Fold this sequence. Notes:
single chain; globular
Amino acid sequence: MEAFLLCFVPLFVAVDAIGVLPLYISLTETIDNDRRQRVLVQSLLTAGAVAIGFLIIGPALLRFLGITISDFMIAGGLLLLAISLTNLITGERRHGPSDAATLGAVPLGVPLITGPAVLTTSLLLADQYGQLLTSLSLITNMALAGMLLALARPLTRGLGVAGIKTLSKIASMLLATIAVMLIRKGVLQIVLHPG
């Protein structure tokens, strides 16, 4: 159970479903409830398929490119740090205009739910805890994100915009902390085990 939580928590922070809530509402506010449900299902299926697919082929791709896990930890840590600092400083996740037919896939599924933070975190967790536990954590986080997004309107009314922004900032701070830890571990591995 402890290993599952150690896998689950970083992925929960990386998915940042609470931070996606305002964007989900703004992207789906002009469509009816049936269409909104289809968009939600499309976004979760896309996000889950991309995350699990990358988890399966990612390690082989890294080996093929000659990238060590230490290299990936440092690069992934820097990327996570940049993502978290952008959210902390600007308070925004960037997204462009969307086609109504693919709204659930892009931008909701990828990159808002499964973005660079989720892909990087899942690969690093898989190296530490194995693919099975990481996949289970990913699926659990996707299901939780789906429940939060399904309750988007009542949650936003209850927490208010300020409450959601505050929770998103806390999640970004945790993500920045995880990023620093990854960079530190990657550098230590290279220093202690060169070549």
